[in-house]
Amino acid sequence: MKPARTLAKIATLIGFATLLANEALGIEWANYYKPKGGIGWAHCGIRDTFDGGYLVVAESAEDEEGMRLFQKYLWVLKITATGVVQWSNAYGPETAGTVTLAQKDVGTTVAQGCDKGFLVAGRTFSFGSKKGDAWVLKLGWYGDIEWQFAYGDGGMRSYLPKDVKLTPDCGYVIVGQATINTTGETDAWAMKLDQNGNLVWNFLYG
Length: 206
Description:
Blueprint: E1 5-11, E2 16-22, E3 27-33, E4 38-48, E5 54-63, E6 70-79, E7 85-91, E8 106-112, E9 118-124, E10 133-139, E11 145-151, E12 157-166, E13 172-180, E14 186-193, E15 199-205
């Protein structure tokens, strides 16, 4: 029986490396990736895709004309089973500007939908209340945006998705944490969306 394969990720200052290894740490391949115009990345999430490849979600920092004016973008990368880039897209504000390290658009988790497209979830300070709403994008097979919404409570809390699962009715359940912006108190949080991004239910637990 072949040893089970695991996916490992190594962060670097200039991009990221994705390694596909077996249990004996025998590396099958290793590739380095960097977002176009970006100076780095953070918050990597990765998911197997139905074609045997992978979808990577992260946040990249763009340095506008070397001025160190960092704009944080959601970065999504589709690679094959052997690490070949099929497409790489950035999603976020149209214009760059200065934000703090805590205020950035970030992708944290992804699921593949019934239609073989992708649902990417993260947090945004550029849309919605601009105070840390959950940000969900439905992407087509080639990364085109089919719909996107920010979900929040008017800025009272900051929402950070941790995982997303496809449901039998082709909707999505997203779980994560919700932090009160004024006190820092954190609760567990979950919401259900239908396949078009409409909110079915939303609960806090704490």
